[in-house]
Amino acid sequence: MKKLFILATALCLQTAIAQAEVIVIGNPSVKTTLSQAEVKNLFLGKRLALPDGTKIEVVELAKDSSVREEFHSKFTKKTQSQLNSYWSRLIFTGKGKMPKEVSDSKELINMIASNPEIIGYIDSSEITTDVVVLAK
Amino acid sequence: MTKIFKYSLIASCLLIQPIFSASADSRIDSIIETLDKVKISGYLNLTAGTAKEKEFFPYDNKLNTTSETWGGIQIDFKASDNLDFTLLTKFFAESRPFDDSFGVDLAYLTYKLTDQTKIRAGILRIPLYKDSDYKDMGFAQLWLRTPELIYANDKVQRHTGIEILQDFYVGDGTIQLQAFYGQNEDPRATKQSNSGKTFIIDDIMGLHLTYTLDEHLFKLGATTRTEPGELEDFIYLNAAGQKKLHAMGYWAGDRQTFYSLGYAYDDGEWKVDAETIFEMTDGGKHDNGKYSASVGYRFGAMTPYLMYQYRESLNDNERGPGKHIYQADDGSKSYLYNRKSIQQSIASIGARYDISSNLAFKAQVDRFDKKIGLFNNKMIEADNTLYSVSLQAIF
Which pTM was predicted? Predict the structure, then answer.
């Protein structure tokens, strides 16, 4: 019985881990969804607005965040080292500025809930009704 | 690093404040507000190299740790929502000819007209080729150094002028147009001339288009300027008292144009770069064709790569016996060329290892071959090998 319980718990945990994924979120006033290419363009500073023209500022999670690593692996296909290399080309030529960072997803959700011009990403398990999913 | 600096400054202000009061609070808020508008960034290259034989660009057969060791500190100040000021200072372990060991590299204002349109004015980088904008920032590149046969041109690095950056959105891609006009002093001409003049090149201009789509980047550019001065500025008396013409006098006033076509691909694993350059000058100065290609593949933190670069003179039939001779009024003759053609190639193998997200170690071996064609159809051949290692960081 005990073994069965452990097995069931492990299976549930595995399912939960498998289902958790990184999602791009925005303010509920944003009525659009984003393709992978659009997300990449926004988070690499190539675009500063949504496809409908709405001005947007992207906000990143802290550099040591595993969700950040997962997000970039999925959408921009870059490691943190490659991102630093990419942004240094823009910063030292005055052609771009690195996005702002916040320490955790709770702070990010609060920012997005109070500012329709900000988008970010979190783990899907942390989503609240204050934000909507723009891409996953 | 910037945060530590800011908080140290605030702490210092608190310590020297004799009476901590409400007015002090507002002053501290004001300091914090100002410091939030400042961003400090930097880069550092620490490179050591040695060549198998004597003379390989800045290296010879002794270990050299200074020729390619340099760094830069950039300060960005956000003056308003639309106006930024940028200052990039640079320092070298070894001063270069016509470049101080420490000084201002770039200093400019950026005014954002719209999200897609920026105007910049001040001391600006000339985006001569695909990677010219950041050729000294080793961390920004895969290789230990940018392809030497293409990027060694240090005469056309910056201008004092104005430029416009305009982005056009095409589907998921972006086309960035960069057009500029400016002036620059040519200290080489000042040194070689006996006229006492300061030589200002007053017509540096260019038009560059960069198209990025997904993992692809294409860059097409043209930059032009005139060679400084006039023939008379470069006549000198040799030890025998004869009037001679320095090489700069032969092409003084000639137009020089740099055309470039570059491509880059980066999907996070494969990194491919290729570039073709044509440097064309009116008159008999060597026109150059320059070509480079490289490929790297990322295995975790390690990225080995291969690179090949080739340079050739193009207008070889314009040089020969009896051509490009200057005869002074005292009858003495100066000959500009004693060689007809030149071909150089470098084959490189190297690897980049990312120690952390802002520090990389690189090692590279370059095999150099050179062929010089003389007027008598004889060929001089030479080769060399360079071994280099480098630590490259950004913050």
Answer: 0.86
